[in-house]
Structure formats: C-alpha cells, structure tokens
Amino acid sequence: MKTKNKKKPDSAALQQVIEDEHRIRKAFKEKDWAEIKGENAWMIFKVMSEFVDGMEKLAKIGPCVTIFGSARTKPGDPYYKTAEEIAYQLVLHGYGVITGGGPGIMEAGNKGAHRAGGKSVGLNIFLPFEQKGNPYIDPDKLITFDYFFVRKVMFVKYSQGFIVMPGGFGTLDELTEALTLIQTKKIGRFPIVMVGKKFWQGWLKWVKEVLIEEGMISPEDLDLFCVVDKPEEAVEVIDDFYSKYLLAPNF
C-alpha cells in the first residue's frame, strides 16, 4: 500500500515558524537587570531617533492630506485609479499628499501627487517582506520607520485630513486610531473621508447596529467621518471643512 507524500514546508515558512517560536520562548525567559536596562536603553534611543528624523523632515512640509488604503490594490483596479485622481485633485487645491510609501493605494496616492507636480511624501515601514518605497515619492520626502506607532504619530501630526480608501487590517487600524483620537479630544478635529460606499457599507452597518445599539459609541460619533464615492466629493469635503471653520491648513 502506497502512502501519499506529504508536502514539505518551504524554507521561508519553516524559518517563520522558527522565528515565531524564538519570540515566544524569549518572552518567557528571565532576564537580569543589566540585560533589561541595555535593551530598554537601545529601544528608547531608536524611538527618539525616529521621532527626530521624522519631525525634522516634515516640519516645513506645508498643508497635506494623508491617503490610506490597501498595499494589495493593483494599478488596474478602480480603487487605485480613484486614489490617484483624488491625490491629483488635492494637489490642484493646494495640498500635498502623504501615504504609507508602499505599493497599491499608497503608490496611487503618490503617483497622483507626482503627476500634478505637488509634494509627494512617503512614510514607509520596515516589514518582514521588505516593503520598499514606491517610485513616485519625492526623494527628500521618503522616511522609513521601524516602529508603527512612531509612523502613526507622523501621519496625525502632519496631516490636515485623512482619505481612507478600501484596505485591510492596517487601514482599519489607521482609521480607528484617528477616530479614537478625535473622539477623546486628544487631537483637534480634522476631516476623515472614507471612499467607496459599497466597500464600507458592511462596516458602517456594524457600527450602527452593534456599536451604537449596545452603547459602545454615541450616535453623534457618526459625524466624525463621511463616506463618498467620487474623487471630487472627497476633495470637496476637505475644502468645505476648512472654509467652514475659516482655518488655514497646517499654519
């Protein structure tokens, strides 16, 4: 009787399993004070250096809008084209564009800003699969971070608004953090525009029927964001917000 050959795991998958096990074991390992102090000191200085580098490069960036969305969106996808057009129109309206610096929607945002001759900023992140900055970022405006939380501070600190395109866990994380910071008044109010009514309808339904119904958020929290479909609608929300409050973005 012949037995079927079991599929052997590839080397990359095996290496990932080994690394995951190492992290788990390391978390339970007892450390002496010198080891703890050394690791903490290194991390503190690394975090400080990322904050300093980011702030120095972005301090005079001017009014910008951040575009979030999936890194997996292909150039032929309608969402890619929409993000590119939104970025293009934002530049024509006097804004620069900030993205996460990678492929997909991020690339589309930088491409639209580059095409319009505006500021194109990329806040990249080191990832296991080595995300690289896309070619449409201004060379002097590409910053690569090790720590997600430092990178997210830069998004919030130097943006006058968020355009949230369809995306996965990372996009949801960035969206909900911005909503939380505004809801809790840790930062000032700025416009959050979610693009793609069909894509976001399930999320919005859950927010209304679960979060609001169970008292997890207030009905007025729905006013913290809006959902649109067209590029011109997204840009109009940003412009209307600042004209309504008579604010000069980022100044």
Radius of gyration: 21 Å
Q: What fraction of residues sit in β-strands?
A: 5-15%
Note the run of SSEs as H and E.
HHEHEHEEHEHEHEH
Main sheet summary: 7 strands, parallel
Counting structural domains, the number is 1
CATH topology (fold) name:
Rossmann fold
- What is the approximate shape? globular
Concise synopsis of the structure shown:
Helices cover 50% and strands 12% of the residues. It has 251 residues and is α/β, with parallel strands linked by helices. The relative contact order is 0.12.
Helix-strand blueprint:
Blueprint: H1 11-28, H2 33-58, E1 64-68, H3 78-92, E2 96-99, H4 105-115, E3 120-125, E4 142-145, H5 148-157, E5 162-164, H6 169-183, E6 192-195, H7 197-212, E7 226-228, H8 231-244
Parallel strand pairs: 1-2, 1-5, 2-3, 3-4, 5-6, 6-7
Helix pairs in contact: 3-4, 3-8
Protein described:
The protein is of the alpha/beta class and 251 residues long. It has a single domain (48-244), classed as Rossmann fold (3-Layer(aba) Sandwich), CATH 3.40.50. 50% of the residues lie in helices and 12% in strands. The chain is built from eight helices and seven strands. Strand 2 (96-99), helix 4 and strand 3 form a beta-alpha-beta unit. Helix 3 (78-92) runs parallel beside helix 8 (231-244). Residues 247-251 have low confidence and may be disordered.
